């Protein structure tokens, strides 16, 4: 199956493994929440057990240093790409209300980004993530 869109997740390269997984889960959920049509059907095993559906489109994960993730963020903003973001501050906030407050407290250029995720046309996403390497 081919897709006209691309989903990209960009993680900062200085995160611990648990942080990478946490950030990926949170920002991937935002992409799905913004695009419910990309959720497939329930899974069923041969025993009749039903499992939750998953996203039908691959998510490509990239890695970037702090400067490169800021550049990708800026390119996405310039192209009006809807993004999910995760900042370093969010590791120390206890809930969604305080997460949003921590982001609202800073201008875009002052956000200490550790992860961004987006879904847009392949061409647009490729321009945003230009020069980034896939996560190893």
From TrEMBL:
<protein>
    <submittedName>
        <fullName>DUF2000 family protein</fullName>
    </submittedName>
</protein>
<dbReference type="InterPro" id="IPR023476">
    <property type="entry name" value="Pep_tRNA_hydro_II_dom_sf"/>
</dbReference>
<dbReference type="InterPro" id="IPR018988">
    <property type="entry name" value="DUF2000"/>
</dbReference>
<dbReference type="Pfam" id="PF09391">
    <property type="entry name" value="DUF2000"/>
</dbReference>
């Amino acid at each position: 199956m081919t897709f006209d869109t691309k989903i990209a997740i960009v993680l900062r390269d200085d995160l611990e493994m648990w942080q990478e997984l946490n950030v990926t889960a949170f920002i991937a959920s935002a992409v799905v929440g913004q695009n419910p049509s990309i959720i497939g059907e329930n899974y069923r095993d041969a025993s009749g057990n039903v499992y939750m559906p998953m996203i039908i489109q691959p998510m490509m994960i990239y890695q970037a240093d702090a400067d490169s993730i800021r550049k990708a963020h800026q390119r996405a903003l310039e192209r009006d790409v809807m993004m999910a973001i995760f900042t370093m501050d969010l590791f120390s906030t206890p809930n969604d209300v305080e997460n949003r407050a921590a982001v609202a407290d800073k201008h875009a250029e002052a956000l200490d980004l550790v992860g961004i995720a987006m879904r847009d046309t392949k061409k647009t996403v490729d321009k945003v993530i230009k020069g980034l390497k896939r996560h190893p």
